[in-house]
Write a structure and sequence with these properties.
Shape: elongated
Structural class: mainly alpha
Number of strands: 0
Strand content: under 5%
Largest sheet: none
Low-confidence stretches: 5-21
Mean pLDDT: 81
Radius of gyration: 24 Å
Helix content: over 70%
């Protein structure tokens, strides 16, 4: 992995090489939009990996219970143990499908906001945002007005609902925001609430997966001991396989920290836009691009 300093240099070069015909603010807003989209795609892939890790862990636990099934003391027959080999039968309980839907909508609010900032920088009306974007923003606003974002365990959902309402209102009705600087300044606090909510959920997911892996580790060690007793040196290959298996059911805390740093970079870049003169937010935009590239490599590749 390249160090962040190298990535910042790359990101800076990208940001400084403004497209022909674009003002500095237009180019800066375009890079902001690009970075936000890249980070949110990686975040969504992290959510999918959390669900996949839970399914893998549950399957392996079920498999261990199957192969260690005991016999009935009276009938001497094996006590039935469930083993469903179909991946489609996985039921998500760590990150439920309802919770995933809410997080996806939070990410939508951030990307729609970034799109709106770019539109404003281009000097065009918000009505020139796509009809789909308007519909999505309106739907998000309605959900939050009905306090529907109520499944986020680690977060004050009232604040999250209010933050999304503020941001989607800005997207739907641009009349109070004539310049990027003004819009970014007003949206900094609600954007921070959404980012902090996502960061809290990321850490909660990683902690939960890590703690529940301990019981599976004991089962894996039991299986390795039996393989060693039966196969001797050949059981070393089983150890290698177990190592690979663990990587599929644990989201490493350092990886989650980098994801959260990428989310923080969105806030820093937006705050720079709120303080910038004529689009001069190059260092923060460069950091956002660099962080986005890091998390893309971590979470966008198949595990």
């Amino acid at each position: 992995m390249k160090p962040l300093s190298s990535l910042l240099a790359i990101g800076s070069a990208i940001s400084l090489s403004a497209c022909v015909g674009l003002t500095q603010m237009q180019d800066t807003a375009a890079k902001f939009d690009q970075g936000v989209h890249e980070v949110t795609v990686a975040e969504l892939n992290l959510f999918n990996q959390v669900q996949s890790a839970e399914c893998s862990r549950n399957f392996y636990t079920q498999g261990f219970n199957f192969v260690t099934a005991r016999t009935d003391a009276n009938t001497h027959a094996l006590i039935p143990a469930s083993l469903d080999l179909r991946a489609s039968k996985c039921v998500h309980t760590e990150l439920t499908d309802t919770e995933l839907d809410i997080r996806e909508k939070l990410l939508q609010s951030i990307t729609l906001y970034a799109d709106a900032i770019q539109t404003l920088a281009n000097g065009t009306s918000y009505v020139e945002l796509s009809e789909e974007a308007h519909e999505r923003a309106s739907a998000l606003k309605q959900l939050c007005e009905e306090q529907k974002f109520n499944s986020m365990v680690a977060t004050n959902t009232t604040n999250v609902n209010a933050a999304v309402i503020t941001i989607t209102s800005m997207i739907i009705d641009h009349s109070n925001y004539k310049h990027v600087k003004e819009a970014a300044l007003t949206m900094q606090q609600p954007l921070a609430i959404i980012v902090e909510a996502l960061k809290a959920e990321n850490f909660a997911d990683a902690k939960s997966l890590e703690s529940k892996t301990d019981s599976l580790l004991n089962e894996l060690k039991t299986g390795l001991s039996a393989a060693r007793d039966k196969n001797g040196v050949a059981s070393f290959l089983d150890i290698v396989w177990v190592r690979v298996t663990l990587q599929s059911i644990v989201i490493a805390p350092p990886d989650v920290s980098q994801m959260n740093e990428a989310l923080d970079a969105i806030l820093k870049a937006n705050n720079a836009l709120a303080r910038s003169l004529n689009g001069g937010a190059i260092p923060e935009i460069s950091e956002l691009i660099a962080r986005a590239q890091q998390v893309s490599r971590l979470f966008n590749a198949s595990r």
